[in-house]
């Protein structure tokens, strides 16, 4: 059977190769036969003029129409595709790559030049305010304690200190009340002296009587 090509020439229909190929669509007056490949094989070119072994993940096809494992540093996670190199922009490698998967990158540390957000700015301020208030409270408590202790010690000293009375010496004047007070004081002194003389006389008499 023939089909008409674009230039009007009649071309014989292509026959699918037995064994590896299968017919997908029959030849028509305007299109050639469309061939495919059996299970486990894939087309070797765009026209599927021949079939090659289908390479699995972790493999890649070769020029000899066979498959080979991905070389070290490359991977392939698709069917019958070329192997691709591992990522090189990863700064923190969590998992090393293999023939099937690329390397796994971890989170990159936060840049120190980045400005902190509102919450990050409020946190240090609250801590500083709390510390200042705590220190101020401690100072007030210490001051009150020291003052109370000082007052307590002063009261104890006042209680222990004996009360001394200073005699009042009155200077005689022409005032009658002053003269009376002085005369009374003089009589009291004479009476006290007389009492002492009588006491001494009694002691002397007692001594003579015993002798």
Automatic annotation (TrEMBL):
The chain crosses the membrane at residues 123-148. Residues 189-211 are annotated as: Disordered. Keywords: Membrane, Transmembrane, Transmembrane helix. It comes from the Eukaryota. SUPFAM superfamilies: TNF receptor-like (SSF57586). Residues 2-35, 70-105 form the TNFR-Cys domain. GO terms for biological process: regulation of cell population proliferation. InterPro entries: TNFR/NGFR_Cys_rich_reg (IPR001368). GO terms for molecular function: signaling receptor activity. This is TNFR-Cys domain-containing protein.
